[in-house]
Amino acid sequence: MSENSIDKEEISGEELTEQNRIRIEKLNDLKSQGKSPYLITKFPVNKSALEIHENFETLENNDVTVAGRITSWRDMGKANFIDVRDHSDRIQVYVKINDIGEDAFNEFKKWDLGDIVGIKGFVFKTKRGEISIHAKELVLLSKSLFPLPEKWHGLRDKEERYRKRYLDLIANPEIKNTFITRSKILSEIRRYLDELGYIEMETPVLHTLEIGASARPFVTHHNALDINMYLRIETELYLKKLIVGGFSKVYEVGRIFRNEGMDSTHNPEFTTVEMYESYTDYFGMMDLIEDMYKTITKNICKNDTIVYRDTEINIGKKWERLTMIEAVKKYSGLNYKDWENDETAREVAKSKNVKVESNATKGDVLIALFEEFVEKELIQPTFIYDYPVENSPLAKRKPDDSSFTERFEYFIYGWEFGNAFSELNDPIDQRERFIKQVEKRRKDGANAELDEDFLTALEYGLPPTGGLGFGVDRLVMLLTDSASIRDVLLFPTMRPIQPSS
Length: 501
Known about the structure:
With 501 residues, the chain is an alpha+beta fold. It has helices at 18-32, 49-54, 56-59, 97-100, 102-108, 158-163, 165-171, 175-195, 236-244, 282-301, 324-332, 342-351, 362-374, 427-443, 452-460, 472-480, and strands spanning 63-75, 79-85, 90-96, 116-125, 131-142, 199-200, 206-207, 219-222, 227-231, 249-257, 269-278, 305-308, 311-314, 320-323, 382-388, 397-398, 401-412, 415-422, 465-471.
């Protein structure tokens, strides 16, 4: 075997087929002739397939250069038709022996589906009316050592599609549209906030503390400092420190990591947008997010109404607003205001077969009833506000009822999409809540600690502030009619394939 040849048994961890072996032999033959396609570093593309289709009238009979992957082949002897797909679309290429020469044609006939090629030729239309390129020169730019999946009929197995997204994009090119839309949604979010005077910030991904929130973090170790560090579970506390420091409106599009389960709407690594604005409250954030969703939906979907999983959802109408007490009464018939004390509330939960802790408070029971009876009913966009203090450690208490906080979440299709507060800026109250939260986390086995640096920042003074965070992935799912979060993540988290023994 020559120095530059490829060992058929060592190119991949996957089992090789006879097709693989034949393709490897072809590559070794090219290398032995000094014609390795991998030595080519540049090809002067000047038109995309889509540009040629859209501008045929002006490009007809003009020379163009394109490049892409061979996706189909029709062999007609001394004249062949191949389909080449680039980033934009598919284009048919007519290859004739008399036009490119016998030697080049014979080399061309050794190529395979999946190979990446460059074509120089002129634009024309076939007798059947298909816009095509009449090749004058072809160049092999990269050799595909594996055949395309299922002979170009598509990659069917979902697990395989998620694991090998590159194959999914080749075999199912329409999948690209989801991720193009995702990129546009992120651009729309940034444009909307930037126009309101918000400034995009970047805060640390690695934290030195396992803070007292309920989510479980991923743990790593910093060798130089010899300390454990934690991948962030939110961007909130750093952004609020910036408000303390004098910024008025800040936001971050941030990657978040939570060491928890996976399902159709949860992945351990996901993207959120968090924003904070001084001198406003949760109602100000409510108005902002409603208008943002309406604007993004209109710009992306060109309509106020969308269809998700065969359900029509009207984003453009006025969103319903209910307190949690009102929502539970509406959908379960139970009235929080009728409960005399915590024990009475627990009896109400028991009567409805809703499990709560033996020491559950009235607020705990209200939350449990909301999760049981209300969430699934919130199909059209709905704000639920005024949450019990028990599950809102960073929200300001309501001035007229300290058992509740100025917090809201908004729901669409029965899912929670975002969470917002009038931010707690009382450092004494915040310390007391953090202490309770840390104690609870430690009882559950976590190594939680007080974030003294954040508490110190509050002691210098946080102005009245409205804050809001929402998940980008669920918004993309909604606007692309995608059933699973894995469909809107290019590379979702997957269990590694165990090597065969």
